[in-house]
Every structure is written in C-alpha cells, then in structure tokens.
Amino acid sequence: MEKIKKSYTATATNKGGRTGHVATDDGMLELELAMPKEIGGTGGKTNPEQLFAAAYASCFGGVLAFVSKRVNTDDAQITVQIHSGEAENGGYGLAADIFVKIPQAGSLEEAQKLANLAHKNCMYSHAVKGNIEVNVKAVE
To answer: Which pTM was predicted?
Structure first.
C-alpha cells in the first residue's frame, strides 16, 4: 500500500446505511438516502452509487484539465456510470464506465489519449485499480 502525505481530509458520517442519512462534518453535504428501485428499494433519493459517480466524475474532470496542457478542456464533460451488481465470485461489486467529451480536442483519437492520461493520474482511478472494472471512452 502506498503511503501519502495527507493534505486534506473529508469526513462524512452515515446513520442507517443505504436507507439512512449521510452528512459531512462541515455541513456542506447532507442527504437522505434510499436504495434504487432497480434493486428493490423505494428510490426517490440519492444513493451511494450516485455519490461515487459524482465524486469520480468531478475528480476525473479536474485531472483532465491538469494533464491537458495543449487542449482547452473548459467545456469538457465527464460522465461516469457506476454499475452495481452480483460479482462473479459471490457477493456484490461495482464497475465503472467513464465517457469523456472534449469538444476542443480536435479528434476523437486525441480526446482518447487525454482521457487515458487523466485515468492514469486520477486518484479515484488509482483507488479502484485492480478492484473494479473501469472502461474509459472518448465520445463526440
């Protein structure tokens, strides 16, 4: 396990699991949670998969801007789909699809190169590497 020099700590507390409540210690995020209808829940509220997708997309977009020295990424869009389901070896697992749209990249090939570079440097990508399937695809 790689050690890091900690420069920031985010703290969130949950009560009630997937059908409970989650809040950050600074009060900036406070949400009621519900399981998605697709997996037997009531839906209508945020769920952990959505929170993970939002965080991953935001981090990935920041890294894309950092690594894209020659290409303006101000209008880039990162869409992350987090899939949950039964794992091959039992239990449950996650998978991620990341769609990267970079209008100013000039070509889909250049956008894919930048997307791959962002994936290589994104801390969320590092965190899940070898643990979940992640597919990164540049799109128009």
So the answer is: 0.94
